[in-house]
Amino acid sequence: MKQLPWASYALIYLFFCPFSLMADDHVVTRQTRSYNGRTSRPRTQEVWICDNAVSINTGAVILIQRYDLGKTWMIFTRERRYLETPLPATAPAPQPEARIQERGFSYEPEFDWEAQRATAADTVNGVPCTRWTLYGEADYATEQRTLFVTHDVPINMERYWTRLKACNISEQLKAVFNRHPMLKSGFPLRSVVTRENAIAPTLRYHFDTLTLEKAQAPDAVYALPQGYTPVDTQEQLFAR
């Protein structure tokens, strides 16, 4: 039998291996929250993304989505337990409208958004950025998001948008990004989110990007940690 060249073996390995040797997208952000005159301790979130998986690590909680297995693992590191659920096949069904009195503490404003791009150049840690301001108005709240967006992005922004960003914003805000391709294709090195609620003090979040790179993910970053106990429900996962 004729021996295949070395390059052919490499291609076969990359095809069958669930996580290839190609570099993954690596993003580390730091967040602070200010409310009622107090600012929280900085919290760090580390994200790894490849074609088959996403890992989001906040320290106390790790969320792993395995697209090759069709599974999601929510892992509580302090309690050393995890919940396994299937990846959703479709977006959640829209909820029926309800009066504000019926929404209780779970009420989430539905904002109408407008976007404005600054003409003057900005920099964040020496990196040239474009400043965008998003204005959101709802019946009982307003929100402003100031984003310092760089287009010198080393990661796969299409994959980042599909796997992470588009899954964590409202349909109204998603439409704003779709209307402004430069906003969608860039990455915010810094974000400041200010929300004014009807009867509560101003709430402000401050996000800074600490790491934005392509890198080889550590071993087992997309795998369940050893020695953790599985649970069957969210109630068991969050139980004290």
Q: If you had to describe this structure to a student in words, what would you say it looks like?
A:
Strands 1, 2, 3, 4, 5, 6, 7, 8, 9, 10, 11, 12, 13 and 14 form a 14-stranded mixed β-sheet that branches. The relative contact order is 0.19. The chain starts with 5 loop residues before the first helix and ends with a helix. It has a single domain, classed as Clam (outer membrane lipoprotein receptor (LolB), chain A), CATH 2.50.20. The model is unreliable at 1-18 and 90-104 (pLDDT under 50). It contains six helices and 14 strands. The longest helix has 11 residues, at 6-16. The chain has 240 residues and is an alpha+beta fold. 17% of the residues lie in helices and 42% in strands.
CATH class identity: Mainly Beta
The coarse silhouette is: globular
Give the radius of gyration. Answer: 21 Å
Topology, number of strands:
14
Distance between the termini: 62 Å
Question: What is the element layout, followed by pairings?
Answer:
Elements: H1 6-16, E1 24-35, E2 38-39, E3 43-49, E4 53-57, E5 61-66, E6 71-76, E7 81-86, H2 100-103, E8 112-117, E9 122-124, E10 127-137, E11 141-150, H3 157-163, H4 171-179, H5 181-185, E12 187-197, E13 203-215, E14 229-231, H6 234-238
Parallel strand pairs: 7-14
Antiparallel strand pairs: 1-2, 1-3, 1-13, 3-4, 4-5, 5-6, 6-7, 8-10, 9-10, 10-11, 11-12, 12-13
